[in-house]
Amino acid sequence: MSRRRRAQALALLGVAVIVYVADQLTKNWVVANLPEGQTVPVLGGFLQWHFVRNPGAAFSFATGATWIFTILAIVVVGVILWQLRRLGSRAWALFFALLLGGVLGNLTDRLTREPGFPVGHVIDFISTPWMMPAIYNVADIGIVSGMVLFVLTSLLGLPIDGSPRARTTADHGEGADADGSAPDETAP
Predict the structure, then answer these.
(1) Which of 62, 83, 114, 149 is the most buried (most CB within 10 A)?
(2) Of 124, 161, 179, 184, which one is the catalytic site residue?
């Protein structure tokens, strides 16, 4: 692994650790200090704390299938760690870092919180009723932010290995080859 890729992987892991630690610290604070099921205004209707234990996925989807989300999270972590060897793009590194930190945060809840391994409920507490009717956590913010970055990175066609973006005919004008030269008129 090149020095650049090693540095990129370490930066990825650093961002992932920051997301993970922030998620776990805030969840532990919520469990210790907030009443479950009650709304606590922070900034009026703009930001509220509302502590719930979520046995499912986003919007409490599939609440009876918590173990499936545990398996999926383990697979996602494995894929991210496997992709480290190919990583050369800062945008892709940030995407993987946000996703890894968020997935590990919620996976920790599923493995360690009530009702127990591997079906623990995820601690959610952030409520922004003006934006969406969901209640979420720091890990979810990391996951969603990472997915927005993934969409942008994909739309821009940025390669994961950090190599220059492949140029298309549209980049060169009609009739140009991928290397920017005019097509060979003598070829049949």
Answers:
(1) 149
(2) 124
Cα 153 to Cα 68: distance, rounded to the nearest angstrom:
28
Model pLDDT for residues 141-161, shown as the tens digit of each residue = 999 999 999 999 999 999 988
Could you tell me how far CA 38 lies from the centroid of its own chain?
A: 28
Tens digit of each residue's pLDDT (9 = 90 or more) over 73-109: 999 999 998 988 788 889 999 999 999 999 999 999 9
Considering only the C-alpha atoms of the chain, give the largest distance between any 2 of them, rounded to a whole number of Å: 78
User: Is residue 124 among the annotated active site residues?
Assistant: yes
Q: Which of 109, 140, 161, 184 is catalytic?
A: 140
d(CA 146, CA 42) in angstroms, rounded, equals: 26
Question: Are the C-beta atoms of residues 137 and 127 closer than 8 Å to each other?
Answer: no
